[in-house]
Protein: Ubiquitin-like modifier-activating enzyme 6
Organism: Takifugu rubripes
Amino acid sequence: MATESMEIDDSLYSRQRYVLGDNAMHQMAQSSVFLSGMGGLGIEIGRLNAVTLHDTKVCETWDLGSNFFIRKDDVSSQKMRVEAVCSRVAELNPYVHVDISSSILDNNTDLRFLQKYQCVILTEATICLQKRVNDFCHSQQPPIKFLSCDAFGVCVRVFCDFGDEFVVSDPTGEEPKEIFIQNITQSNPGVVTCMDNRPHGLQTGQSVVFREVNGMEELNGTVQHVSEVLSPHSFAIGDTSQLQPYAHGGFVFLMKTPKTCRFETLERQLSDPQVLTPDLSKPEAPLQIHAAMLALDTFQEEHNRLPNIGTARGTVPPLTAAVGGLASQEVLKAITGKFAPLQQWFYLDAMEILRPLHSVSPEEFLPRGDRYDGLRACIGESLCQELHKLRVFMVGCGAIGCEMLKNFSLLGVGLSKSSGEVCITDPDLIEKSNLNRQFLFRPHHIQKSKSTTAAEATYDINPDLQVEAHLNKVCPATESIYNDSFFSRMNVVVTALDNVEARRYVDSRCVSNQRPLLDSGTMGTKGHTEIIVPNLTESYNSHRDPPEEEIPFCTLKSFPSVIEHTIQWARDKFENAFVHKPSMYNSFWQNHPSPEVVLQRMKAGESLEGSFQVIKLLNRRPSQWEQCIAVGRLKFEKYFKRKALQLLHSFPLDTRLKDGSLFWQSPKRPPTPVEFDLKDPLHFAFVVSTARLFAAIYNISYSTQDLSEEVVASILSEVRIPEYSPLDKSVETDETAKKPDLIKMPVNSEEEREAITHLEQAISTCERLQMNPQQFEKDDDNNGHVDFVASASALRARVYSIEPADRLKTKRIAGKIIPAIATATAAVAGLVALELIKVVGCQEFESFRNCFFNLAIPVVVLTEPAKVKKTMIRSNIYFSIWDCWTILGHEDFTLSDFMNAVREKYGIEPTMVVHGVKMLYVPVMPGHSKRLKLTMQKLIKPSLDRRYVDLTVSFAPEADDEDDLPGPPVRYYFSSHETP
């Protein structure tokens, strides 16, 4: 990864840095981990950590179904498992050295060789060896962190022991937020009330730090303990009765307090285990599995093998993937002290997949000498065959998509010989930042298609799969490709993307085509899965996430109070100057190709939308590098000096509101104008990055020398800064006001005359220029995009006395980067693939599980999905989101025939028929009664290839004074020969 003296490669590790932080990243780089056991569970953990890999076994066919880094050639050549996987593990991370060991590790081994490791992980080890190694690790000073992990068929476990006193530097991983203060009482205890009654989210006993309090200034910079939470928006602290009276302003933020955790050895924990309970519907399960697995341990000790019957010898790859992700996160905690560790056992089972298998013949579970023997031992041959025949459509080939394809490979989903198929689509190309967690991709894949590269890598794991790779987005624009015929061909749809609107669109297609949808997502250490099954569960569109809280326009423009405001302001400035205006400029000249014609029409008094903005850009365009630098310097003056002077002119520091209170009080911060200083790195960075961006949109070349301080200083010495004089204009203070549309703002006659003059000058002096919009690209550190946003945000923060953010945080917020770590994506994909097995097995509602987890705490919560709701139309006639009534028509089928058919087939009177936004029949509308004689073909005018349409039909209520009743969509087929 990097040594402490080396810089972390942000282009590779940025998403992981957002999760772990730089200190933890450096600790990981210097760590040394010993991992024993290269089966399916071991390799899941091994690929996510810097390790010495240990194993003594030879590759077998069985391994192909659980270890995605073992190939057929490794089996045929009888290669040692550890040798087969070593180079492939090392390939995942060029900064990590991977060692291997095939030495015997048993009850007679001298364990002192483990002293050089910070963490030891055992898989596929006997319980006796686990206890011996754990005792050794626990006794060391400092203790060696110990984990053991086991997978027995449909049950898996993790055990952690990090010593008697393990200090956790950051128990939650949550970013502290600023809580603005409305009031602090002068009392014992002092009561703090939050601004606008906003919830503080604090807990009794936590520590907070006060900043920028006016009046009761003794609190500033002090750490206070929350003695009691009084309400969601107020809390008590210590004695404030002797302090100065509170005046106004200030904020508090939660101070992270290290936590010490104490662990017992495996020996002590066996009899009184401390367990995490993931599934609250079966709270007794962890202890029952604990007892059952101890029985298996005893059997192994006595017979040196696992039982021949039952699932214990088998393996369910998604289950090992899920627990492997969790265990890997625990390894990171052991090394770094970042996040709260598991104390001390975690058990996860997939018992639900066994429920339909009790009546299956025992022969179904016997080995057949192929890669699926481990899976077959758990789910039987028939269910394996159903997986092989499966046709899956997966949208997105990013981190989760790569993990899903790994699971498909191991499960044998979509085999070509079984007429199965995995169809994947992703329009994106592979970036360097993807390599850290999208594990199918390597450095030589950068700038190649994600979907086609992922397909090739999937074949490498399991050549028998049938993978079809597309490069399309899935949205209304691609409906002709991903139509009903396509969806009806697919058995299951999987979404592996972070676009909410795309998810909603895919969900609507799944509902209309009665197809199950498996959805999931991660954010840092958090993950969720949602299983959507036709006629059993609610759909993705059945619930709506709360809308993202928007920053008021006036706050961004004039009254920022936190760093997020200044970052968003800088990002908006980038979008307006370097994306929106150039795009508008190009669009205008595409519609008006001749400047002379535009001039003629403007002189004739014609109003052309956007013309004034375009002419202003044309008039102010730079044509050489020196002018770009000058523009950057003038922008500095405008943004960080003149705007502040104008605001203080409009609202002097002593301005008071109607109630007598100060205008400038928290959360409003008064600005301080900044004087330009070329020696200030921030000032220099802003001017140069601004100049570079203007040069990019106007095709102006410059050299490396042109970026030097010497050249920039020389250019700036010639730039004249106009004298400032305040303007008499109003400043928006209403937080509900929206940003005005500048293109549609009224233009006075003087501005019209100026625009015409400018256009005449532009026509006479140059040709019309094409501009190059600069779409914000966060992952290219050489393009100046993040430089502009980071410097602009930091300077605005300086103007308003806001604590600035570093470049990494600025980049995350400005680029809307979702923090990501491979441990969470591995876990979430494993949980989704488990549900896939249940879907293929046609299980009952009670078997399915949604999941939410936060590996940082750690919390894992499995719950039943939301059951589908049924709506009563009337008297025992119900429908749900999954229902679609069907009517078969023909060429001469009239609207009247359609309504009669609905009445006769479903026993209810239709009153209104709508197709999309077009009302086909509404009785009260003039002339609509005549439509009853028209054919459905004439009313709808379908395209030649259209087989059917979905119509919205309302029905007559039972009582005359009631509203019309809603119903399910009615699918009308234009021909009776069509098969619904």
